[in-house]
Write a structure and sequence with these properties.
The complex is a heterodimer. By secondary structure, chain A is an alpha/beta fold. Chain A is 23% helix and 34% strand. By secondary structure, chain B is α/β, with parallel strands linked by helices. In chain B, 44% of the residues are buried. Classes of the chains: A alpha/beta, B alpha/beta. Chain A binds chain B through residues 2-3, 424, 427-430, 432-441, 443, 447-448, 450-455, and chain B through 48-51, 71-73, 75-77, 81-82, 84, 87-93, 98-99, 101-103, 105-106, 109, 141, 158, 162.
């Protein structure tokens, strides 16, 4: 065995350091999914009638749908009647202040390095922490409210700003959109909500931290972000889960709406438990994320660093409806051990002079399988639309795979498209070169991988870029020798 | 500084080094010459710890250390530097960033404080002048898109910053035109010091007009078959390697 292969074996044995379980009593509904369960979830959350109706419509749509099988991923059939669709930490009484957060949960977020106590918070980051299905704390709310910015859990938004939720919920990802989106629409439990009013530049990063804790539960959160005319908001999302032998389902929906000249930056560092080195356990991350550049001159940027999950199936997309609107997608997806990722984006150009940029970096190590799947669609009326796509794959070792499926559909002859793709391997000669200059093998791999991901990392907010880089190092630790 | 005894090494099942003996004293410049396939690059690779080779016999002592027992990065941290025949590209990694990480790895090993960016850049600017390095080279990815000459110059530049005790230059002259060759040679000469040894591995005598060695060794079929002073290189240039291979081995300083 060459040194590179040996190191890969070592890297593969790296432990997942967020795999602890918090011992806390959870309030759950019975396993399985039917109308009664949906009614029960809605009842427990004290929801208005319109929202229950919407959930039920979604349930009926879902019941008539087939689970998609076109992804380049393999897994045993999921028994949807064996999942618990709602788990909330007890007690569920409304929290008057952050001091009332259960100390166990608070300790969990401390272990994860998530600042939910405002005094300890990173300067400039407001955090909404979602534990299992329920939002437990939102920081800096007061400060944001002074600017008219609403940042709260989805449940609170339903209670306190029903008109906004009703207007925008499902307006980007309809309840009939796809199998997992329909499922989410029926049973979603909580999530984050943000509204930035006209002309306001949100002065801090808004951040949600998702944590799955309870066993046998799925996590179905829903995020809705609206940037009104001329507004700017940067939003961060992070996630972890305990290590468990069985697979857990995570089917989230994220909807972004950007009105005239508004900008939304949405950044994700996804580190759900990826399963062990034999491929047991791990999160199934089946997520629908879509942004709607509704207004002229609006802009939506998705940046994602995906290192976790046993299976990732997600395509953060942009509908470029407003004239001169801009969609961007920057992605780093890592698959190690037996992880599988089928991820990419869709850029739907409808308005004139719309522009989109796609930069996708796939890294495969161990027996990981990494697929980029992207679609660029230029509509009939999208005069002078432009797209630039770049898909690069990096292979570490010789048991992994990289696949690229670009789809292009053009109905307007004025469109300009560019597509570049590359596949490379971390060579023994690169690693030896670094070692000959005094760097350890691990530092060498980290450096080579960071260089590969540079164009994506520079799109991340500063604190996140550092975290993402570290995470990448941990995910690949021992993967090269 | 360096003592090689009866060194045998294989690559891909073939024995390439068949008993190399060589001693390099502190501050000396040795040239190792030889025809293609004689084992010159293998010797350089074995000394630096490249994984493609298997040492089957012999020993290498470097500054009292068992060199063959050290990992490549440990050898580097102990002051052994290899200027690559084919410098490797590392896309996306800034040249200055790479070099700073390397220098600090060495400094850390020596128990010295790591240099911050300010101090590092001051050091780098100083060394760049000697080698006539275009400052933009610093902000480009390591070796990516470099011309052949730039790559070789970058190697010597790294050597100037990392300040090794023993530098091995593997065919540093290959692929260089005469102007680039002069610049590189000038750079190497400026790095000659009483406490630094240099091994120049080359096929052609040409480079030795500019880097004048103290000793010249001829490697042929995995053994050093002749050793002598700088005039041996000239003789080789005149008579070709055939002269050595046909003739009787001459005992030299080895």
């Amino acid at each position: 065995m060459s040194t590179a292969e040996r190191t890969i074996e070592e890297l593969a044995t790296q432990e997942y350091k967020y795999g602890f379980v918090t011992d806390i009593e959870a309030d759950t509904v019975p396993r399985g999914l039917n109308e009664d369960i949906v009614r029960e979830i809605s009842r427990r959350k004290g929801e208005p009638e319109w929202l229950l109706d919407w959930r039920l419509k979604a349930l009926r749509a879902w019941q008539g749908m087939q689970e998609p099988r076109w992804g380049n991923v393999k897994y045993d059939p999921i028994d949807y009647q064996d999942i618990i669709y709602y788990a909330a930490p007890k007690p569920r009484k409304a929290l008057g202040s952050l001091d009332e957060v259960d100390p166990e949960i608070r300790r969990t977020f401390e272990k994860l390095g998530i600042p939910i106590e405002e005094q300890k918070a990173l300067a400039g980051v407001a955090v909404d922490a979602v534990f299992d299905s329920v939002s437990v704390a939102t920081t800096f709310r007061q400060k944001l409210a002074e600017l008219g910015i609403i940042f709260c859990s989805f449940s609170e938004a339903v209670r306190n700003h029903p008109e906004l939720v009703r207007q925008y919920l499902g307006s980007v990802v309809p309840h009939t959109d796809n199998f997992f989106a329909a499922l989410n629409s029926a049973v979603f439990s909580d999530g984050s909500f943000a509204y930035v009013p006209k002309g306001v530049r949100c002065p801090m990063e808004l951040s949600t931290y998702f944590r799955i804790n309870a066993q046998n539960t799925g996590q179905f959160e829903r995020t809705l972000i609206i940037a009104d005319e001329g507004a700017f908001v940067s939003y961060l999302e992070g996630c972890t889960a305990p290590m468990r032998d069985e697979n857990q389902l995570h089917a989230a929906v994220v909807e972004l709406v950007a009105l005239d000249r508004a900008t939304i930056k949405y950044s994700t560092v996804q580190n759900w438990y990826p399963g062990d080195k034999e491929g047991r356990g791990g999160i199934y991350n089946f997520v629908t994320k879509r942004g709607h550049c509704r207004g002229a001159g609006s802009k939506i940027t998705w940046t994602q660093v995906e290192t976790g999950s046993a299976i990732t199936w997600k395509y953060p997309s942009c509908i470029l409806q407003g004239d001169n609107s801009i969609g961007e997608f920057y992605s780093v997806a890592v698959t190690n051990n037996f992880q599988q990722a089928d991820t990419g984006t869709k850029m739907i150009h409808l308005g004139r002079n719309t522009r989109s940029t796609i930069v996708s970096k796939g890294i495969s190590a161990g027996r990981g399988q990494n697929t980029y799947r992207g679609m660029v669609k230029i509509g009939r009326n999208a005069e002078n639309a432009r797209n630039y796509s770049q898909c690069d794959s990096l292979l570490i070792g010789d048991k992994c795979g990289a696949h690229t499926f670009p789809y292009i559909e053009i109905k307007n002859t004025s469109a300009q498209m560019e597509h570049e793709a590359s596949t490379s391997k971390i060579g023994e000669d690169q690693i030896f070169y670094c070692r000959q200059r005094g760097l350890s093998t691990e530092d060498a791999v980290n450096m080579i991988v960071s260089g590969f991901c540079k164009e994506v990392f520079r799109e991340l907010p500063m604190e996140f870029a550092v975290e993402a880089q570290k995470l990448l190092g941990v995910s690949l630790e021992g993967s090269v020798g | 500084m360096l003592e090689i005894r009866k060194l045998h090494a294989r690559a891909g099942g073939n024995e390439i080094l068949k008993g190399v003996d060589l001693a390099v004293g502190t501050g000396e410049v040795h040239a190792i010459m030889g025809p293609n396939g004689s084992g010159k690059s293998t010797l350089a690779g074995v000394l630096a710890g490249r994984g493609d080779y298997e040492v089957t016999e012999g020993s290498v002592t470097y500054q009292g250390l068992d060199l063959l027992g050290l990992d490549p990065e440990e050898r580097a941290r102990e002051g052994l530097f290899l200027a690559f025949q084919y410098p490797v590209e590392i896309p996306g990694v800034n040249n200055a960033y790479f070099l700073k990480a390397a220098l600090n790895a060495l400094r850390k090993h020596r128990g010295e404080p790591e240099l911050d960016t300010m101090d590092f850049m001051a050091l780098v600017r100083d060394r760049m002048k000697v080698l006539d390095i275009d400052p933009s080279l610093l902000n480009r990815p390591v070796n990516e898109g470099f011309s052949g000459g730039e790559k070789k110059r970058n190697e010597i530049f790294q050597m100037a910053v990392l300040e090794p005790k023993l530098a091995i230059l593997d065919e540093t002259d290959s692929g260089l035109d005469i102007d680039a060759l002069k610049i590189v040679a000038h750079g190497v000469n400026s790095l000659r010091r009483p406490d630094r040894s240099i091994i120049v591995v080359t096929h052609y005598q040409r480079l030795l007009n500019y880097i004048v060695p103290d000793f010249v060794h001829v490697l042929s079929d995995g053994r050093i078959v002749r050793s002598g002073g700088k005039e041996l290189a000239l003789e080789l240039e005149e008579r070709g390697y055939g002269w050595i291979e046909d003739g009787e081995p001459v005992g030299g300083r080895a």
